[in-house]
Amino acid sequence: MSSGIGAPSVHHAMVVIFLEFFAWGLLTMPVISVLNQTFPEHTFLMNGLVMGIKGILSFLSAPLIGALSDIWGRKFFLLITVFFTCAPIPLMTINTWWFFAMISISGIFAVTFSVVFAYVADVTTVEERSRAYGLVSATFAASLVISPALGAVLMERYSDTLVVALATAIAVLDVFFILVAVPESLPDKVRPSSWGAPINWEQADPFAALRKVGTDHTVLMQCVTVLLSYLPEAGQYSCIFVYLKLKMGFNTMEVAIFIAVVGILSISVQVTLGCFMRKIGAKRTIILGLILEMTQLFWYGFGSKKWMMWAAGILAALGSITYPAISAFVSIHSTADSQGAVQGMVTGMRGLCNGLGPAMFGVVFYLFNVDLNNEQSVASSSEEITEDSWFTYPGPPFIFGGLMVILAILVAVFIPEVHGETTLHRTPSVKRRASVDLQYEVEGGHKPTTPLMRSDSLAQL
């Protein structure tokens, strides 16, 4: 497993991420259609449950896979996570029930971002790491700029079978690339001598970091902010494209273009975030991001026309600055010896939201009877939703999420500006490769991804 092309680099990780999510991006439109056909009366509920189960399993398994990758190496787990994440793809044309069941179960291994960011940490210095993470996150967003539109065109002109075949081929290419081209990034000197080495079970415990949340008032406020803001964000990203197509009258190509526009804007936000934060500060950036998120959630919830959905989507892209700003705020205002613990708490809270958010949105849709049935037929893709039809096409989960974000804003306003020793006042260290143990501790052993667009749910549904 140690063979590969060239020295391990960030570019290897970028190719792995691009191919995996390009394959799923091709299936964005076909999956929405299959979801509606498989669960015609409870589409939104089943969407939420499928993505919720996957998110919960990912949250539980991510730390364990991270701990195992410290022992067995990154390449092996890149191969495992990509294979099992893409395993449901060919089932889409074979058996749709098994397809959605496999999506749920694949959450156990659908933690490619965890291993990818550990890989990046191995091959970069501490000073280079933020930029490298930004490149990987931007690559993810870029993979979704054209793939949904390409999949939609192929589906309309040919068939779903061709799209599934192409997505399967790209997934196989990704697995082959890992086998042949990706070198192992974990140095042999820091790896145990045998595969039977003991696992650090404290690191593998998904709830270990969360149990420490209440030990510090400032950290508690930061985690509460993440919970109140990212729970609706995760739920929104799991269902928004299903909602646009099945309830707001968007046709297939309009949804694909919507994804492309949001992706391009998200990349732009990612590139300019650092400069923006230097201008107004991390805390103000957090509050601004929360205000944008609140606005777009209410717009999704109360909007009755397509242009309102477009406006909300643009605000969603701009509001993606919130979580990266929180991560930066934590990094700046935490002491040197508490960086790993604090980042782990925040990341763990976000991972928990990845599972609970989709399930929450699905249940709320079901409780308010927002589903596809005889009383609420799908709007024709060629006709505009009338002004008095907002009640016919309600978005109660988005409204509920907007109220949660208001609470998040109130909490964020009272987060202290200074907490302990700041990294801004520490003497700059000599540029170096930190030990892998320290790197993995600093990154929390989870998924420190920036939410340009949510990795799993957006790519799939």
TrEMBL record:
It is found in: Membrane. PROSITE patterns: MFS, SUGAR_TRANSPORT_1. The chain crosses the membrane at residues 12-32, 44-64, 76-92, 98-120, 132-155, 161-182, 255-273, 285-302, 308-330, 351-368, 398-416. Gene3D superfamilies: MFS general substrate transporter like domains. It is a multi-pass membrane protein. InterPro entries: MFS, MFS_dom, MFS_trans_sf, Sugar_transporter_CS, Tet-R_TetA/multi-R_MdtG-like. GO terms for molecular function: transmembrane transporter activity. This is Hippocampus abundant transcript 1 protein isoform X4. It comes from Musca domestica (House fly).
